[in-house]
Amino acid sequence: MPAITFFEEGISYKLKNKTAVRKWLTDTIVAEGFKLNELNYIFCSDEYLLQINQQYLDHDTYTDIITFDNSEEEGIIVGDIFISIERIKENAAKFSVTEAQELHRVMVHGALHLLGYKDKSAADKKKMTLKEDHYLAERSF
């Protein structure tokens, strides 16, 4: 059965509107022509995410999100998305948005990576931001 699951690693964090968030993310994946098999969101601390960044990506920097694509079949989503709640809170203040808005942007950003969107070049980043904005506007909660 397709599933989006939420976990906490080393922190205590309770996502609000879990059912609505699951439906919104699932609808996003389906709208892009993909099937959802398994998607795990792991909420963690800056330090935890830094260790993952160092260990798996050889980057020695803090980040808000790391996405691992575990899919074995094209068009079927299987992945793990790690999100630093500390970074979400900091970025929400920096960009003058609510923590929920910033969290949802980062959550859909990770899903878009699994759907094949990139953000390394300016053109790719612009395309991804437009997709984020589109799907954020689709939320009904």
Automatic annotation (TrEMBL):
Q: Name one Pfam family in it.
A: YbeY
* Assigned EC number: 3.1.-.-
Q: Which keywords belong to this entry?
A: Cytoplasm, Endonuclease, Hydrolase, Metal-binding, Nuclease, Ribosome biogenesis, rRNA processing, Zinc
Keyword presence, Protein biosynthesis: no
Residues that hold Zn(2+) according to the record: 109, 113, 119
Known InterPro entries for this protein? MetalPrtase_cat_dom_sf_prd (IPR023091), YbeY (IPR002036), YbeY_CS (IPR020549)
Q: Does the keyword Metal-binding apply?
A: yes
Where is it mostly found?
cytoplasm
Cofactor binding mode, per the note? Binds 1 zinc ion.
Which cofactors are required for activity? Zn(2+)
* Top-level taxon of the source organism: Bacteria
What the entry lists under Gene3D superfamilies is as follows: Metalloproteases ('zincins'), catalytic domain (3.40.390.30)
What subcellular compartments does it reside in?
Cytoplasm
Q: Member of which family?
A: Belongs to the endoribonuclease YbeY family.
Task: Report the protein's function.
Answer: Single strand-specific metallo-endoribonuclease involved in late-stage 70S ribosome quality control and in maturation of the 3' terminus of the 16S rRNA.
Name the record gives this protein: Endoribonuclease YbeY
